[in-house]
Write a structure and sequence with these properties.
By secondary structure, the chain is α+β, with helices and mostly antiparallel strands. The protein contains 8 helices and 8 strands; from the N terminus they run αααββαααββαβββαβ. The strands form 2 sheets. Strands 3-8-4-5-6-7 form a 6-stranded antiparallel β-sheet. A two-stranded antiparallel sheet has the order 1-2. A hairpin with a 2-residue loop joins strand 6 and strand 7. The chain folds into 3 domains: 61 residues, no CATH class; 72 residues, Winged helix-like DNA-binding domain superfamily/Winged helix DNA-binding domain (Arc Repressor Mutant, subunit A, Orthogonal Bundle); 72 residues, Roll (SH3 type barrels). Helix 1 crosses helix 4.
Length: 224
């Protein structure tokens, strides 16, 4: 095996370790015993401590600025790839997405990651509802690419789209939208934006506030 191949294997091993630790810290699981449930040994944690990625204080783990920065970059790549597989390619975990995502996240460059984010309309959560860290592209007001995935209220009157996901932490709003038939996979058409947003599903006409429509993300029809 060449040195380049060995370096790639070591890079992937290191990033997997950072990701596992970071996901635990996201859930406030900071004790060493928490990460050991994923077969992370003390020597591997010591590696991260020696490289200044984490600190271990009183059997609890915390990221250094270096470690947090690396985790946020990695988990952003991971969750944007999940969104791409789920929203654009209509692939599910049963179709091997999980293994594919775990491979792709290690090879995405910053520019490619930003392009995916822009293409998807800068999503804030992954298909499992976990947050996607913002990137430099998310701060740019003028987008050079019209996103394939967009909010329902950003469609043009007469334009159609397929709902890909609902983005809201408000469970009541989520239930209300579901009761209206606004769930992933459903095709909608924007009829009007003012004075209220009016969406059409088949023969059903739905009127709602912009706050509700903005939680519905759709893939523009014929955008594949």
């Amino acid at each position: 095996m060449s040195k380049k191949e060995l370096d790639l294997i070591e890079k992937e091993r290191h990033e997997q370790l950072i990701e596992i630790v970071g996901v635990h810290l996201e859930k406030e699981e900071r004790r060493i015993e928490d990460v050991q449930r994923h077969d992370i040994t003390i020597p591997r944690l010591k590696e991260l401590e020696s490289s200044n990625h984490i600190r271990i204080i009183d059997e609890e783990i915390e990221f250094t600025k270096k470690g947090e920065r690396e985790f946020l970059d990695l988990i952003r790549r991971h969750r944007l790839t999940e969104r791409l597989m789920h929203d654009v390619l209509d692939l599910t975990e049963e179709e091997g997405v999980k293994d594919f995502v775990c491979k792709v996240e290690h090879i995405l460059t910053s520019d490619v990651t930003d392009s995916i984010c822009t293409l998807l309309g800068h999503p804030t959560i992954c298909p499992h509802g976990r947050p996607i860290p913002k990137g430099r592209c998310c701060e740019i007001n003028q987008q050079e690419i019209r996103p394939i995935i967009t909010q329902a209220n950003h469609l043009k009157p007469g334009e159609s789209g397929i709902i890909t996901f609902i983005s809201t932490a408000d469970h009541d709003k989520m239930d209300r939208l579901a009761s209206m038939g606004l769930v992933p996979g459903v095709e909608i058409k924007l009829h009007q934006l003012k004075p209220a947003v009016v969406l059409i599903i088949g023969e059903t006409v739905l009127s709602m506030d912009t706050d509700y429509a903005s939680a519905v993300y759709v893939r523009r029809k014929n955008s594949r």
